[in-house]
Amino acid sequence: MVTSIESQLLTRTTELRAQVESIVNSTPVTDVHTHLFPRQFNEFCLYGIDELLTYHYLTAETFRSARVSPERFWQMSKTDQADLVWQTLFVENSPASEAARGIVSILDAFGLDTRAENLQEARAFFNSRRLAEHIDQVFDVARVNGVVMTNDPFDEAEGQIWNSGVELDHRFRSSLRLDRLLYDSDRTNATELRRLLDRWIERMNPVYMGVSLPPDFKFPGDGARERLLREVVLPAAREHGLALTLMVGVRRRVNPGLREAGDGVGKADVTAVERLCGEFGDVKFLATFLSRENQHELCVAARKFSNLMPFGCWWFLNNPSIVSEITRERLELLGTSFIPQHSDARVLEQLIYKWKHARKEIADVLCDLYEQLLLSGRAVTRDEISRDVSRLFSGNCKEWIGF
Hints:
This protein has helices spanning 4-26, 49-53, 56-65, 70-75, 78-91, 98-109, 120-127, 131-142, 156-163, 179-184, 190-204, 224-240, 270-279, 295-304, 320-334, 350-376, 382-401; strands spanning 29-31, 144-148, 172-173, 176-177, 208-213, 243-248, 250-251, 264-265, 285-289, 308-310. The chain is α/β, with parallel strands linked by helices. Among the domains are: 49-127, Orthogonal Bundle (uronate isomerase, domain 2, chain A); 152-310, Metal-dependent hydrolases (TIM Barrel), CATH 3.20.20.
C-alpha cells in the first residue's frame, strides 16, 4: 500500500521530471565542435539527403551488409551511393544503429516518410529548399544558437576562401585546426611557423585552436609534433588568449579501403594532457578522448587541473548508452563544470538528431541527479535547474572560449 508520504514523493518526482525535460528541451545550446560551414563557403557547406546518407558513419555500416566492395562503392555516383545505403540500412534492415536512427529523426522532423521505398520524396524536398532559410530552420528545430566550425586554412581550397575576405554568418565561429601544420608541414623553422600561425589567427579570429592526436601521443616528447606544440602552438595560445582543444585517441586509416570510414580507436595516455596542463597553467585546454576507457581518467585529471575542460562524447562514443554513462560520471565527479556534448556534425541536418538524442540522455541523467538530491533532503527549484542546464549547454563554453 502506498503511504501518503510515498504518494507525495512520487508526485514531486513526476513534476520534477516534467520540469527538467521541459527546460532541457527548450534551452538553446552552443555547439563547441562541428565540421559545419555557412553557405558562403560554397562546396564546404554540406546538406541534404545524399550527403546525410553517404556520411562515413553510414557507409561503414553499409559495407557490413551490402554485397558491394569498397572499390566498387567509391566508383558510384553520390546519388547511387545514397540509394544503396538507403536500400541496405532502411529498407532491407531496421535502422537500429544510432547513426541510422538519426536519419529517421531528421526525416521525421521535416514530415518526410521514414519508411519510403526510395529517396524520391526526400530528394525533392531538400532540392526545393532555399539554403539560407533552410539553415535558419535547422538551427531553430535543433535549438542551436551557434556552432564552432573546424577550419583548416592550410588546406588550399579553404585558405582561398578565407583570403577572399569572406564574411561569416554570426552563428558560425571559426576554430583553427592544426593537424596539417603539425603533421604535414614541410617547414621546420619554428619562427616561420609562428609568424604563419599569427597571421591566420589575425585573419580568422578563431575561438580556439585544435588538433586531433593519436592514442600514442606523449608529452613531453622528442618528436617534431611535440616540439612544435611547445615552441609554436602553446606560446601562440598564451599570447592570443586562445584555448587549445585536444581530441585524443583516433587511429587513422585502420582500413584504408574504407577511406574516412576506415579510422579506428585506441586507448590513450591521459597523463600527457595532465603534463600539458601542469606546464602551461596559464593556457586553457578543452579535451575529449575517443576511447570509453579513458573517460574516468579524464574526469580525475579535470579535478586536479582547473585549466582543463572535458567536453563531449566524441565519434564512437556518441551512442545513447555511452553518453548516459559518461554524463553521469562527469556530474558525479565534476558537478556541472564540463561541456556534456558537441554534435561533431559534418552535414547541416545532423544538428537535429544529434541534439534531439543528446537532450534526451542529458535530461534523464539530470532527472536522476535531482531525484537523488530530493531523497537526500534538498529539493531544487526551477530557477536552479535552468541555471544548471544553461551552464552545461552554453555557459561553460562561452566562459572557456569567449564565444
